[in-house]
Design brief:
Blueprint (H helix, E strand, L loop, with lengths): L12 H19 L9 H4 L3 H10 L3 E6 L4 E5 L3 H17 L23 H12 L6 E4 L6 H9 L4 E5 L8 H8 L3 E5 L7 H13 L1 E6 L2 E6 L3 E6 L7 H4 L3 E4 L5 H15 L4 H13 L4 H10 L3 H13 L5
Parallel strand pairs: 3-8, 3-9, 4-5, 5-8
Antiparallel strand pairs: 1-2, 6-7
Helix pairs in contact: 1-4, 10-11, 10-12, 11-12, 11-13
Length: 322
Amino acid sequence: MRLVVDWGWLNDPELREAVSKCLRYVKKLKTEGKTWEDFELGDVGVPYHIFRDLMYKYGLFERTYSSSKHKFYKFSIPIEEVEKRLNEVEVIESTGSLREEEKHAEIPKDFWAPIEGYDDIRDLFLASIKANNPVHILLVGPPATGKSLMLMEVERLAGSIFITAGTVTRVGIRDILLDRKPRYLIIDELDKIKDPDDLSVLLTLMESGRVVVAKHKEYREERLKTWVFAGANTTRSLPQELLDRFAKFYLKPYDKETLKRVIVKTLTTRESVDRDLAEHIAITISESYGSVRDAIRLARLCKSKEEVDKYWSIMRKYQLVV
């Protein structure tokens, strides 16, 4: 017998209606003075394929009797608890009130401030964030196109988790989703995902909002409302079925002048760097075909223009520039 109930069924109106039918029948038995709470599916009018999910996936029911002609079931937990949870959902839907994790994120006033030349993409990001249901976005392009900057802006929103695809092999995306339940999952270097399990988890999440664990005779399912925002240098290694789940944008590298402006904006607004020093870093980086990441590293290392020249020379000498 399953001892733990998964309340994920509350997110599905069809499943809630099926549970309500069972609940009404059991309460009717009580008002009639019956001493049992068992029922057959014909008594409650719930299709077996729906009831099967409620019993096996969510642990809400258990079988009490089975023969060639009859099968009886009952709730696996007190019906008072079930009724309480259903009432909470009905109040939320009737009043328009949302649980904290379902509210739209508050967008900072300076959202997108460091980014240059992509106001149209900014508008689309905002529309996605404000949408009632997830719209996933993938940014594709070589380094120095602003992909990571855009993802870092989304990371500022409450409920966001930022991961780099090449560093999640030990933990796994499934565990991150189940443990943290992010509103926004931000994935840098999506093209470096190699683990088939991680790809499978993403596919299921983005298609149906479900995270499924099915191993070692354990079945667990969580329903999440998660937006996925990702960046990739290329799409060659990504399966088509994953790409189809994204709205995709292909970005070109910044030219030198644009890169300078982006670096200055990033360092002054996000790293609190003096504008004069930020401009010197921007000129140094752009003339050597560096990236915004290089500029951020330098800004954190250096307090003067002399240190910028010194440390950048060392980094170039030992080919630390990507």
